[in-house]
TrEMBL record:
Belongs to the helicase family. DnaB subfamily. Keywords: ATP-binding, DNA replication, DNA-binding, Helicase, Hydrolase, Isomerase, Nucleotide-binding, Primosome. This is Replicative DNA helicase. GO terms for biological process: DNA replication, synthesis of primer. It is an enzyme of class 5 (isomerase).
Length: 505
């Protein structure tokens, strides 16, 4: 058996005035020794353990150096590490270069390496919690007129969320190497998905092909004039993403989405019951007004019950609180992700949200604050955020009713902050209200010719809709055609023959 490893200073007793933050130097030594003895032990902990998680900074530096050597395909052992630590003052204080050999020689088995890593990570979280608690107490005692109690609660909750999801409460620079690893991991996840998408699937093939799915950290604006089907399309996307949800466990036993998304739907316009009725109508293919009025046949009622049974475990959460503030949306989304997970946020609709300012503030400034807040939320939670938006009436005054970016209502910041801007347009809606009448002194054959062309165009666009991708930071713009069954408020894929196809995964 090798010589005993150096021990840290004795921990003060309970009667001591100073409380030492939780740590376990022996577990850190055991893990490092296991890595030096067998580099494969590093693979078991590298997914969740970082150098900053070690209580002893020297141990953190040893772990980091081992990682760099192993990732280069080199051996990490006391001999190869010697060059990097000959001038390390911290290592000299606990035994110098010989300490590395002692770490490797003191290890009995490498089997428990992962358990040691999880213990080190858990103790790191406990130390971070202590620091977070101290900051909360100090901020609460401070008499700061610019920071209300609600502001402090929001800031504390944001730090607590960061700690729960990443193990860190402080932001800062990341090396390009770390970012590159994340990018490769995202590409690997996309490769494993059935649809080969890098983002959350919408279930609508042509939209997924155009966007590559809904990407994390993106703010997507879905805009349109009234009766175009904004809410219907958003509901369809939310349902499809939730239906496709599949998960697996990572090395820490945490749930990780591999397809689809747990979805939060903030319905500021419709009640949760109305939204649920819409989804039931879409899936059971029963007109929603028949459900509301109770005009169902026995066969339709059976279909409704079957659809409800299939939907009751859907990972879709609805919040129908009216006039929510952007800070309340942020707080509730963080809480949902912490408690159940979260992969997609839908907000219906943007203009019904409130900013943090007073009623005397300019509305354009308030909408700018809201869009900035939604983009920040998307980045903070690493989820796509779909926000529905109204369009100005300028659309109605043009001969071509297709929306443009300039039609976005109330603020140019919507276009500026959004990663993707999409417009919903149904030509059928306008054609149905523009049946040509016979003009004075117009020959009958000319009128019949105009009416025939109108009827032909109506047939071409019957039960179809367009989604116009007017802006996309990461890809092409263009128009996608979908089917739209108005009686069920249901969008679907448009087959080559012009017939409706069910979204598939």
């Amino acid at each position: 058996m090798s010589s005993q490893l150096p021990k840290p200073p004795p921990v003060p007793t309970e009667s001591s005035a100073i409380r030492i933050p939780p740590h376990n130097f022996e577990a850190e030594q055991a893990l490092l020794g296991a890595i030096l003895l067998s580099n494969r032990a590093y693979e078991r902990v590298s997914e969740f353990l970082r150098p900053e998680h070690f209580a002893d900074p020297v141990h953190g530096r040893i772990f980091a150096t081992c990682g760099k050597l192993i990732e280069r395909g080199q051996m990490a052992n006391p001999v190869t590490l010697k060059t990097y630590f000959e001038s390390d003052g911290g290592l000299a204080e606990i035994g110098g270069i010989s300490y590395l050999a002692q770490l490797a020689n003191a290890v009995v088995s490498v089997i428990n390496a992962e358990d040691y890593g999880k213990l080190i990570f858990d103790l790191h979280l406990r130390r971070e919690l202590i620091g977070l608690g101290e900051d909360m107490v100090n901020n609460a005692f401070a008499a700061d007129l610019d920071s209300s109690a609600n502001d402090q609660i929001g800031a504390a909750e944001a730090k607590l969320y960061d700690l729960a999801t990443t193990g860190q409460t402080e932001g800062g620079f990341e090396s390009f190497n770390a970012v590159l690893v994340g990018a490769v991991a995202a590409a690997e996840a996309a490769h494993k998905r059935q649809g080969k998408l890098s983002g959350v699937p919408t279930g609508l093939v042509d939209i997924d092909s155009k966007l590559g799915g809904l990407h994390e950290s993106d703010l997507l604006i879905l805009a349109g004039r009234p009766s175009m089907g904004k809410t219907a399309l958003a509901t369809n996307i939310a349902f499809n993403a939730a239906s496709a949800y599949r998960e697996e466990l990572d090395t820490l036993g945490r749930k990780k989405a591999v397809d689809g998304a747990i979805t939060a739907f903030f319905s500021l316009e419709m009640s949760a019951e109305q939204l649920a009725t819409r989804i039931l109508a879409e899936q059971a293919e029963i007109a929603s007004h028949k459900i509301r009025q109770g005009e169902l046949s026995n066969d339709e009622f059976e279909r409704l019950v079957i659809a409800a049974q299939n939907l009751h475990k859907l990972p879709l959460f609805i919040d129908d609180t009216p006039a929510l503030s952007i800070s309340a949306v942020r707080t509730r989304a963080r809480r949902l992700k912490r408690q159940h997970g979260l992969g997609l946020i839908v907000i219906d609709y943007l203009q019904l949200l409130r900013g943090s300012g007073t009623s005397s503030d300019n509305r354009v400034q308030e909408v700018s604050e809201i869009t900035r807040g939604l983009k920040a939320l998307a980045k903070e939670l690493s989820v796509p955020v779909i926000a529905l938006s109204q369009l100005s009436r300028a659309v109605e005054s043009r001969e071509d009713k297709r929306p443009q970016l300039s039609d976005l209502r109330e603020s140019g910041s919507i276009e500026q902050d959004a990663d993707v801007v999409m417009f919903v347009f149904r030509e059928q809606y306008y054609l149905e209200r523009a049946e040509p009448g016979r003009r004075p002194d117009e020959a009958e054959d000319k009128f019949n010719d105009r009416h025939a062309r109108w009827q032909e165009r109506c047939e071409e666009v019957w039960n179809t809709a367009e989604v116009i991708v007017a802006k996309q930071r990461h890809g092409p713009v263009g128009t996608v055609r979908l089917s739209f069954r108005g009686e069920f408020t249901k969008f679907g894929n448009l087959a080559t023959a012009g017939h409706y196809e069910e979204p598939g995964f």
